[in-house]
Amino acid sequence: MRELVFATNNQYKTQEVRNLLSNKYKVLNLSDIGCTTDIPETGSTFAENATLKSKYVVDHYHIDCFADDSGLEIEALNQEPGIFSARYSGVKDDQTNLKLVLQKMEGQTNRKARFRTVISLMRGAENFLFEGIINGQINETPTGDQGFGYDPIFVPDGYEQTFAEMSMEQKNLISHRALAMNKLIAFLKEQ
């Protein structure tokens, strides 16, 4: 089984991806390879941030790596929080960020939003990008205790539950990360 690094320390994201790539690759995360650096995300797009992370691991650890940058884009907030989703409030705290979004959405009738993921796969010097998008709505109140981030307020189109009310298996069938990962997996199978 080949090793592939997922440039994250987020255990929820790591487990989601391990479930998606099970029996194909041994997925390691940053702590598994001893990387304690907070890799700067100074890009202005999801693709740039994902590439910065995957390139850092390849350059410093010489292992093929993929990294994602994901975020919530809310139509009524001019696509915010976008690339700043993890630190929208100025701190990396899910509850604080979620509360800020709900505060900014008070009185908004347009609740349209989407989650977007871009994955950068660095194999040596080659970079491959894969994108996944899921459209939905922002709930007025958080519900559910699964997942992380904005999952408790995001209801995907065609569903009545938030991501946080779904099991990991349900979410992995439809999530933005799953959609991007499926494209990555199809690519890896062709190699």
TrEMBL record:
Homodimer. Binds 1 Mg(2+) ion per subunit. Substrate binds at residues 8-13, 70, 148-151, 171, 176-177. One of its GO terms (molecular function) is ITP diphosphatase activity. GO terms for biological process: nucleotide metabolic process; purine nucleoside triphosphate catabolic process. It catalyses: dITP + H2O = dIMP + diphosphate + H(+); ITP + H2O = IMP + diphosphate + H(+); XTP + H2O = XMP + diphosphate + H(+). Mg(2+) binds at residue 69. Keywords: Hydrolase, Magnesium, Metal-binding, Nucleotide metabolism, Nucleotide-binding. SUPFAM superfamilies: ITPase-like (SSF52972). This is dITP/XTP pyrophosphatase. The active site is at residue 69. Pyrophosphatase that catalyzes the hydrolysis of nucleoside triphosphates to their monophosphate derivatives, with a high preference for the non-canonical purine nucleotides XTP (xanthosine triphosphate), dITP (deoxyinosine triphosphate) and ITP. Seems to function as a house-cleaning enzyme that removes non-canonical purine nucleotides from the nucleotide pool, thus preventing their incorporation into DNA/RNA and avoiding chromosomal lesions. GO terms for cellular component: cytosol. It comes from Pedobacter nyackensis. Its EC number is 3.6.1.66. Belongs to the HAM1 NTPase family. NCBIfam families: RdgB/HAM1 family non-canonical purine NTP pyrophosphatase. Its cofactor is Mg(2+).
